[in-house]
Amino acid sequence: MTKKCALLVVDMINDFQFPKGKQLAGFTKETIEPILQLKDHFHQKEWPVIYINDHYGLWKADIALITDHAFNEISAPIIQQIKPSDEDYFLIKPKHSAFYGTALHTLLHELGVDSVAVTGVAGNICVFFTANDAYMREFNIYVPKDAIASEEKKFNEYALEMMETVLSADVRPSNDLIQLLS
Fold first, then answer.
1. pTM for the whole thing?
2. 20 to 30 A Cα–Cα from 9, which one of 54, 73, 134, 144?
3. 140-142 and 89-93 as β-strands: parallel, antiparallel, unpaired?
């Protein structure tokens, strides 16, 4: 059973300025409420909430700077709702996985975490690679199926299937995960 879980919020501070970015933003909006419910539950349990985000070439773990850079007509409604609070952690990442080239593994170890709930975008890329690296580091993995989004629904479904079957991730919906972790 889980001793302590961390909520990982991957790439939600996003500019969506790429092919199919507008489509991904539409699917991302559907994940906001489940992620916020998870975030509230983790805060109540005093479990860590960790945002890990692309740095957009800025190379500064400065949430205000990255938010300002990513803020535009498409991203504004998402960022305004999902941005980190003062009690959350914030890391930048150079590539797809939240573990690669970051202090995430060390931070999770220092916080006494044995499980991670991976949320965010894109489900079939950054969330998938993060879950893979969590698996390689022997964390228990939860990927709530309603808290990740990809550019296309079929990509999301395939990523969830792979994470469940190959990485032994629990992909139940966020409400069910909250009940399990209560």
1. 0.97
2. 73
3. unpaired
- How far is residue 125 from each of residues 55, 129, 149, measured CA to CA in Å? 16, 6, 10
pLDDT of residue 3: 85
User: Would you say 91 and 37 are in contact if contact means Cβ atoms under 8 Å apart?
Assistant: no
